[in-house]
Every structure is written in structure tokens, then in C-alpha cells.
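Support request, please re-run this one:
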Amino acid sequence: MGVAGKFRLAVDDGVIDPKAWQKFGIASVTVNGKRVDVHEHVLCRWPFADLRLFSRERTGFETNTRPFLVVPPLAGGFPILLRDLVVALLTENPAVAVADWFDVRYIPKTFGRFGFDTSISYITDMIRLLGTDLHLLGVCQAVVPTLAATAYLAAREPEAAPQSLILMGGPVDPLRNPTGVVRNLRGHTLDWLRSNTIIPVPTGFPGRGRLVYPKTLQIATLTAYVTRHCLEGRELYWKLVADDGVDPVHFPFVTLAYTLMDLPAEHFLENIRCVFQDRDLVTGKFIFANTKIDPLAIRKTALMTVEGERDDIAAPGQTKAAHDLCGSIPKDKQRHLLVDGCGHFSLFHGHICRTQIVPEIMGFLNHEART
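Re-run finished. Output below.
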């Protein structure tokens, strides 16, 4: 059992402030033209995340069901930002689990730190809990932790490694095609970032005193990004003008995008150092649980990477780099998808996600990832 497993909480312990997460609100999905009820429950709770399961079966997780585990990015947005992706996957698969990260503003300091290594430990524990034949999907910032967790299990517990690994729009190698985001994160030292972006949670919140990268700074950064897109007529302009989400009335994109959480300072800084500055995975220096992470250990897990042609956060090439690192996976168990006209957010929200990307994922699972 990993680090996260040592600190599991009872699902009904009442410790976590309900403001720490946002409800997905998925009551039903359409399958073959018919509305099917969706049932949601928490399989397990840790101090910093729930393992939340959405199932088309009233009894919940079934041993004969091969579930997805969707790992959202710890990049400021709540996991509900991936709601369209989860809904689309549920139309194709009877069970989808989500790593539902909490807002640490509402997590007391007594629960300790939440670093980059802790997030990987959570992912490995979630994979173990869901069992064999799992489809693991990492989005954006989560691609490196999910790849590292898969490599760790493949080397140490090969029977627990997922059946397939899908990496979507994330910086496996940020220097393959560096964007403004990459240049900005590499252009500041960790000391500068610590001094200029990190503050304690104020009094009045359960997490008071915990050091965080606050949502106030993220809102300012996101607003500047949205403004640029609007001035240039890019992806977010069109999402704001003509919201193409699955339920834009109850879950408008602007609300999903602007509902942000504080990030634990240690995770924020360690992620920048490990992924963007030192590129530990690419340079062979990635250490987790006192083990050197080697993607070559992945042999039986099928690999799919998904990139958006117009992604200006994780540009084409950054995610595809995973195929070069995972050279032990047979070529007939690999697929890369570059989606024409697709920006970063359309990878997991909107019409392109639902009608192009999810069908391609299902095709991958029925072909390259078949047992």
C-alpha cells in the first residue's frame, strides 16, 4: 500500500469541508438513444482527494466492469472542468472513476503536506483499488504523474499495471515544442516563485496557515489568457460566445473554467521543478518512492497520446514524446492522435471532445489495447 493508503479516511467521517470539491451533477447519460441513470458514490477518501465513481449500474463498481480512471490536472481548476469528458466516456463505458482533488484551502494543516510525489502515490493507490484491466487517462498536468505511476507499477507490481494509458494534452517533454507557459515557468527560479506567488491561507478557513499558490493569482492569469484569446478570436472566445458543452445551461464553460482552487505550494513548486525545469522524466532522473522511474519498464500497457493542433498550453509534440520514452511497448499497442483545429480546452470539453476524441479513444481500446 502506498503513502496515500496509510492515511485513508472513512468516506462518511465528516472531516472534509464540503466546499473542498464541486459536484459533477451527472444524473443520467444517453446510451443508444435512451436515457440511462448514473449513480455516483465515493469508493475511497483520502485527506486530499476522493476516488469518485460514476456508474450506470445501480450496484456501483462491478468486478466484471473494466473502468476508466480519469486523473484531472492539479493546475487550479476543479476536476469538474472535465465533466464533458466524463459524461462522454460514460456513454461508452459503464463505469468511470475520477480522482477528485480537493481545494487545500479547506484542508487543515494537521493533514500534512501534499507534494508532487504524494499525488503519484494517490494515483497508484487508486489503480490498485480499482483492480486489474483498468484504463488510465491523465489530462494536462496529470500526464507525468500518471505515466510515472504506470512505470512504477510496471516495474514493481506488474500485475497491477493498467491495461491502457491515455495521455492527453500534457507536458511529457515541455521542450519538444515550448509554449509561452513553458517559457514563463522556466524563466523564473523556484526561489522567485516562492517569494512572489506563494501565500498562507488566511484565517477563517480550515486550511489557515497552509502555504498555497492562491486562486486569486490564478484568476488574474486566466483572465489575461482569456483576454488574449478573445482579442485574437481563438478557442476560448468561441467557447464563451457559443458554449459547446454537454449542458451549457447548468454547467456553463465560463463557470467551470473560473471555479478555481488553491494549490498546495509544495506540489506547485515541485511540479515546476520536476516537469518544466529539470525534466526529470526525460533526463532519467525521476525518483518516486526511492525508486528510479523508467518508462521502459512499461511493456504490457497500451499507450495512446492525444494532442490538439492549436493547443497553446501543451503544444503538439510535448505529449507525443511519451512514445519515445516507452520504447518497450510494442508498436502495435501504441497510437497517437493529433486533432485538427483543436485547442487545449477542447480536448476535454465540448463538441470536439465528445464527437472526435472519445470515439478515437474507444477505437484505441477496441484495437491496440485489446487483450
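The mean pLDDT is 93. The domain at 4-366 is CATH 3.40.50.1820 (Rossmann fold).
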